[in-house]
Structures are given as C-alpha cells and as structure tokens.
Amino acid sequence: MTDDRSVVLVTVDSLRADYCGFMGSERGLTPNLDRHAAEGLVFENAVTPGPSTLDAMPGIFTGVDLVDSDEGDLQDRLQHHMRAHTSLPERFADAGYETAAFTANPWTSRQFGFDAGFDHFEDFLDGPADDGAPRDEAGADQEAADDEGESTLSPLGLVRRWAGESSMFQAWGSFADDAIAWAEDADEPYFLWLFLVDVHMPYLPVSGVRSQTRPETYAANLWLYLNGHEAGPLESLARPRLVSAYEDTIRYTDDLYERFVAELADDPLVAFHADHGEAFGEGGVYGHGPTLSEEQVHVPLFVANGPTGRVDRPFSLRRLPDLLVALGTGEGDVDALTGPYATTRNRDPKFALRGADWKYVDDDGEPHLYDLASGEHMEADEPLAAVADEYVRAWQTHERERQRVAEAAREVAETTDC
What we know:
Blueprint: E1 7-12, H1 31-38, E2 41-43, E3 46-47, H2 53-62, H3 74-84, H4 88-94, E4 98-103, E5 120-122, H5 155-164, H6 176-185, E6 190-196, H7 214-227, H8 235-262, E7 269-274, E8 279-280, E9 286-287, H9 294-297, E10 298-299, E11 301-304, E12 309-311, E13 315-316, H10 320-329, E14 342-345, E15 350-354, E16 358-363, E17 366-371, H11 383-417
Parallel strand pairs: 1-6, 1-7, 2-12, 3-13, 4-5, 4-6
Antiparallel strand pairs: 2-11, 3-10, 7-11, 8-9, 14-15, 15-16, 16-17
Helix pairs in contact: 7-8
C-alpha cells in the first residue's frame, strides 16, 4: 500500500495573475479559487518560461525550454524535445502512478508529443493545429476550408468556427464528466492533467455567464484577430467588450473548478496555474507572445489539499514537475525550488529575469530594469542591472550553443535517413 498522494493539475490557458482574487485582484471573478487558495499553498511570484503556449509548455512539462530555431519542422522539433527529456507524466508513471490527460489545446496534443507518459490521453483535435489567435501567432497562416469551401480563417469562417466551439474551442464543461469518470476508475495514486482553453481568445463565455450579447462578443473578437497584437481603430469600443467577455470566461472557469473538485474522491492534491497571461492594450499590446510584460509572464499558481501558506520568492514553472512530484510522493524540499529570480523568454527573442519586486528585460540588446511596484524604470547602472546583464549574456550564449547542437544533430539524422 503506497502513501503517495494522487495529483490533479489544472492548467488554464491565458489567465492573468492580476485578475485572480488570491493574487490581489478586487474584481471578484474567482471566489471559489480564492477559497481553495486560502486553504492551500500560493506562489505569489510564479513566472512562466514564456508568454505563449509554445514558449511555456515544453519547459513546464520537461523543465527544459524548446530550442529556438528556424530550422526544421516545428512539429518534428517539439516531438523530439518531448522524447529527449523526461516529462512530468513520465516522472509520475515511473513513480507508479496511473496517468491521464484531457487537453483542449492543439499545441499540447499528441501531434506534438505531449501524450508521452500518459496511460490515457484525449486531445479533441480534429484538424490543423490552428488556435484562432491573432494573425501572427503560429498556425494563423493556414487556410483550411470548411465543408462549404469557406476559409476557416476568413471573418465569416472564423465566426462560424468559434460558434461551433470545435477543436481549440472545446469548453471545459464538455469533458469535465469524462475526467471525473476516469479518476473514479483509476488506480491510486493517479496523476490527472486538464488543460483548459475557455479563457483563451476568442473570449466566448458560455450561456448563463455572459454580460453582453453574442454579436458584440464576436465583433470584438474579430477586431482583435484582424489587428493582431497591436491596437487598431475602434479600440475604445472593442477593448471594454473584450475585457468583459474575458472576465466572463474566468467566472465560468471558477464556477466549474468548484464543481469539478467537489466530485473528486479522496481529496487529491490539486494544483492550479496558467501557462501564461494575456495583455489588453497595456503598452499597446494585445494577446500573448510578443513581449515579456507582467500581464503575460506573471501567472497564478496554488496547490490545494496539501501544504498551506504563501511563497514570496520567485518560482519558475519549469520547476513545476519537481514541485508536484515532491508533494505527491513526499520526497523533496519545496523551499529549494524557489530562488531570488526566475527566467522567462520568447521567440523574438527577448530574455528576462524576474525577481520578487524587480524585472530585468533584454530586448534585442536593449536592457531595461523595472521596479514592479511602480512599473517604472530603475537606473540601468545599478549593481542589480550589471549582475542581471551578465547572467542574461551567459544564458544567451548557452541558448546559441544549444541551437547549434540541435541543428547539427538534425543534419546528421537527415544524412543517416538518406
């Protein structure tokens, strides 16, 4: 008989930390999450490896970032990454856990190798991995056609696809019961992962939680899609509707979270986090991915039914596998997983170090040191900036070397295949 605890991981796509009550928000959107967080362990300064799913999830699942490269097919590179590194579910499987996943995000589907280590895996993916996000996101150049020949990425095609809630737009409520049923039949201990996209653009609240009419919501989302990450004409009209719809999707997620965990038997550990955040015009940016702003890289994270308290020291989501395995098996020191700063990057590439009250960003060689409380620039010649700059330079050198090794290995593999 094992003493290991079952573990449930709930990942929410695009949820901002500052919209959650347990992270200080006064919007009142997350009363159920707030209650569970108050009785659990909250990480006040959790930082994502990167501000998009592709930037974040490979690192969150393996502890190692995907090598940034323009060489080779993205699907092949991501599959190789997941094979080359021991993933979170594989670590639980090695510890004797039964494992399952329900992910509605195509970028974490079996197409990209995220099924490794899972005994049961559902990804709901019927077609191309297009998430319907702003145009310059990965996958947005695909022109798949629907049954009547209308491009799914034309305005009419997008609205029809959003209305159908297909693939990327699978609401959590449509598979929550299946996940509960799996947990009821699973041998303990088990590891169950849910990746929810209800909060991701397009922001389409389900019936019963909408604060505006459906046409208004579609129009605002279409405005966002057509303008990409930049603000465009009619922003003063579109932004309030986008924010209102976004808040409604958070209310829905909060409500279903309460109902979901209430049906879980035997009180497993339940970890809740976002893969990254979302911007709504701050600094002229919308969506996620283009910058390392706080709205995009500071994420909510708590663990319920286990330790209690609040952790102030920065925590990188790359350490999430270490944290969950340590809590589930009782082996490992949680305090040792935090540090004076956490690192984050995107494919631009921008690099950043994020402390508890400061952030250093290298934007294509331009250094910026911020005070997080005020949001204002600090003096770049401060000793902190010098230390941060030295670390980032070493990190960038290491990443370039990783890229060279990966591309050389790919060339050898292609030669061998010939």
